[in-house]
Design goal:
Helices cover 32% and strands 26% of the residues. The protein has helices at residues 3-7, 11-15, 21-39, 53-69, 78-91, 103-114, 143-147, 168-175, 234-247, 265-273, 317-327, 397-406; strands at residues 99-101, 116-119, 122-126, 133-138, 154-158, 161-162, 182-190, 196-204, 206-209, 213-218, 222-227, 252-256, 279-286, 291-296, 306-310, 332-335, 343-349, 355-364, 380-381. Strands 3, 4, 5, 6, 7 and 8 form a six-stranded antiparallel beta sheet that branches. A six-stranded mixed beta sheet has the order 10-11-12-15-16-19, sandwiched between helices.
Length: 407
């Protein structure tokens, strides 16, 4: 099993992403009304983010100058300009984690956070030269698998449209569609003698669940679970893997969160509830000092040895998981210090198909540690070798050290 087969399965969710003054003014007023309503005040001026007459007047001047002098006026996308007003407003916060999403970006965000989309369940990669699209993974029990598509098939047409020179995101948009509809893929498939056979395969689209969890039993009856991100679907996948490995006689468990960028706060808390005794697993504090505790109950507690693998790309929800396991002494943290993203973002629906992601609170481990810009320091520090083969018990230094610890 190599790194690609673990990591790329999650990328399909991702493949799957002036004007006239009156328009600028109406866009600003819309934002002001929403912001004021969300804060329980009548005017945005009370927030310290006042959009005064001078600002509006300056926007008008810029708009008129564009109207009169801009060379490519006929090519102006006025909708894009309006979106730019909102994007710029949020970008001015200087917070890399707060941003405005337009309608298309909001739809992509929903797919990423739910871990579900409507399509065929194949992970695609642009082939070198851009002449074809390479299927690098086919999800189990997916429409693609049921139709007979296989890993390493090469797509050269989608519904008769040539994919050569077409951006991969565009090809993905051709393949995705409404549940129950069909898409026909023209493919090349390598034969045993090294030649390629042409074939047409028609796939009926359906709701596809992204595989965010992979698992296997290692030698010595050590269970191994890799979690690529924390989506809505991740809890059930994790629970199923944990149960299956335990039923198979696992004597210990390795939970691999390397390169996991985080995700859903509620999901990681549910997963920790399967591992920890009753108590707080993480708590958050907002700008007013209001605290919210997320807890585990006494129903579940994993009572076998555990190692949690992390590296510098393990962030956010990954750090919540590692920090809680460390504070409860429920497992050894192995690898390198984590990224250090200890803040929580909330997705706010703007009621017009767009959304706002805003940093609203900071989280703390059960023992009160703030890890923002600090990270979680492992109990056992291990350097990942450049030649390491990811998740290979013989050639992955971090995994080998965790196995030694559990044995």
């Amino acid at each position: 099993m190599d790194r690609k087969s673990f990591m790329r399965g999650t990328l399909v969710g991702v493949l799957a992403m002036c004007l006239i003054f009156g328009a600028v003014f109406s866009g600003i007023k819309l934002f002001e009304r929403f912001y004021a309503k969300s804060q329980g005040i009548e005017h945005a001026a009370a927030t310290g983010a006042e959009l005064d007459e001078k600002t509006k007047s300056k926007l008008g001047v810029i708009s008129n100058l564009v109207d009169h002098y801009y060379l490519y006026e006929d090519e102006i996308d006025h909708n894009k300009q309006k979106e730019g007003v909102y994007e710029g407003f949020v970008a001015s916060l200087g917070d890399p984690y707060s941003c405005y999403y337009d309608e298309e970006e909001t739809m992509e965000l929903r797919e990423r956070t739910t871990g579900e989309y409507c399509g065929i369940g194949a992970v695609l990669q642009e082939e070198k030269g851009g002449e074809m699209v390479h299927i690098i993974n086919v999800y189990k029990n997916s429409p693609a698998e049921r139709a007979g598509l296989k890993k390493d098939d090469l797509i050269y047409e989608v519904d008769g449209k040539d994919v050569a020179g077409i951006d991969l995101n565009e090809v993905v948009s051709w393949i995705r569609g409404e549940k129950g509809t069909e898409v026909t893929l023209s493919i090349y498939r390598e034969k045993q003698n090294g030649s390629y056979a042409e074939n047409e395969i028609t796939v009926t689209r359906d709701v596809v669940e992204i595989q965010t969890v992979e698992s296997k039993m290692l030698d010595g009856k050590i269970g191994y679970i890799y979690v690529s991100e924390f989506d809505n679907v991740t809890y059930e996948q994790y629970k199923e893997s944990l149960t299956k490995l335990n039923d198979a006689g696992a004597t210990g468990m390795i939970v691999d969160l390397r390169d996991n960028p985080g995700g859903n706060l509620e999901t990681v808390c549910e997963m920790l509830d399967l591992m920890l005794p009753e108590g707080t697993v993480v708590y958050t504090e907002d700008k007013n000092g209001k605290r919210e505790d997320y807890t585990s109950d006494e129903e579940h507690k994993y009572d076998k040895p555990v190692c949690v693998l992390v590296n510098g790309n393990s962030a956010s929800a990954s750090e919540i998981f590692a920090g809680a396991m460390q504070d409860y002494k429920a497992g050894k943290i192995v690898g390198k210090t984590t990224y250090g993203k200890g803040i929580v973002q909330q997705i706010i629906d703007l009621k017009d198909g767009t959304s706002l992601k805003l940093t609203v609170s900071e989280y703390h481990t059960p023992n009160g540690r703030s890890i923002h810009k600090k990270g979680i320091t492992p109990d056992i520090e291990v350097e990942q070798g450049e030649e390491d083969v990811f998740a290979d018990p013989q050639n992955d230094a971090v995994l080998k050290r965790a196995i030694e610890e559990l044995k």
